[in-house]
Amino acid sequence: MIKAWNKYFALYKISFKQAWYNKANLSGLLFFLFILIFIYNRLWEVIGIQTGEQGINSTFIWYLLFAEAIILSSPKIERTFFDDIRSGTMAYYINKPISFFLMRYTEALGNMSVCFCLLVGFGSLATLFFTGQPPFKIEHFPLITLMCFLSACLNTLLFAAIGLCGLWLHSIRTLSMAIERLAFIFGGAIFPLTIYPQWFVDIAKWTPFYSIYYQTIKLVYDFSWTNLGEVILLNGFWSLLFISFITYAYSKLNKKVNVYGG
């Protein structure tokens, strides 16, 4: 059993190293994050002055940092799956002694891990420089980072499921773009959902974006063991739902290859 998982760990390490040495991509991500932090920090400073809420920028910039770490670190795994299905590459791997899905997913996780760690590390230093004292206790920082990393893994799983929709769709570009926009709207990827009316929040709670983004990132400024437990339960529920769909789609892939020949 351990030897079987060693194959996927090796794929993870290879993908991790490839992403690490892609300096141009990493530099672009860090520069983009810095620009976002700088612009939104100035925005919230002005809002804080106008409303008399000094230090409001610290709360929202730390929130923005972890939201962008989840979003920007996620590779375009849905395009990889779609291209593999449409090109027939999937048929080559489907009967090999390695899971086609786990192979692609662990490769995506390797890429995502490098980007996430660098974004959080660099972003934390930049946010500390601009805002000073964070809105959370420093001892909670590793746990908040871990929960956001797990949410990034779940976000990658979601887009892997979207890629498998290529079994039934001629193009997933529109679907992928729609999901990304819904994540920004219902996940509070830029602004926390607390600024929206309650009826909107009630709708957002029925979407996976609520727990993947907002509930997880909210730990930055509202950390409690109750909130942490709720995040674990909600993300666990959506993980099971995504895995169930992926298992179903993967069985359809196997049938198509074995019965119809790809």
Please describe what this structure looks like.
This protein has 262 residues and is mainly alpha-helical. It contains 11 helices and no strands. Helix 2 runs antiparallel to helix 3 and helix 6 packs across helix 7. The longest helix has 36 residues. The two termini are 29 Å apart. The model has no long low-confidence stretch (mean pLDDT 85).
Q: Encode the helix/strand succession as letters.
A: HHHHHHHHHHH
Low-confidence stretches: none
- Assembly of the depicted chains: single chain
Mean pLDDT comes to 85
Cα Rg = 20 Å
Task: Compile the SSE list and pairings.
Layout: H1 2-20, H2 23-51, H3 56-73, H4 77-87, H5 89-93, H6 100-131, H7 141-164, H8 173-186, H9 198-204, H10 208-217, H11 225-260
Helix pairs in contact: 1-6, 2-3, 2-6, 3-6, 3-7, 4-7, 6-7, 7-10, 7-11, 8-10, 10-11
Q: What can be said about this structure in brief?
A:
With 262 residues, the protein is mainly alpha-helical.
Defining traits:
mainly alpha; 11 helices; 78% helix
